[in-house]
Amino acid sequence: MKQVxxxxxxxxxxxxxxxxxxxxxxxxxxxxxxxxxxxxxxxHIDPVKxxxxxxxxxxxxxxxTLSMLSYLAEEFSTLIDGFYMxxxxxxxxxxxxxxxxxxxxxxxxxxxxDVIEKKPGMFQLKTExxxxxxxxxxPALQAEWITIQFVK
Length: 152
Prior knowledge:
Layout: E1 2-4, E2 18-19, E3 23-24, H1 27-37, H2 42-45, H3 47-50, H4 62-67, H5 69-76, E4 78-80, E5 83-96, E6 105-119, E7 122-133, E8 141-151
Parallel strand pairs: 1-4
Antiparallel strand pairs: 2-6, 3-6, 5-8, 6-7, 7-8
């Protein structure tokens, strides 16, 4: 995580790509996500049936991979000094490019692409994020993520 002043945040736009550590996606996590979302498609939760697919194993839900951005962002985010609260605002674009097979490791790569001070102490940030899969040329997903940072 990187921390900058209110004035410096504008200089961070398109300046560098920040990375999270690698995170292993396990079957237990996929199963728990299936339970939470009531999405029990066999490709996610049944290793025997999933072995017969072109993937050869179970894969994480695309929305599970997307939801991991909140966790991965703890390491790749740029925070403004005085930050006390953040929230999701939405996405301008999300693309699921490659499936994440069980046991794969993923990490976030992020570049700040826009900052707007909506009102004093309320900053809207747009970040280009890629979830990479270790050992793969293709990422799991790419998105433009909009968040709000509240600073004192």
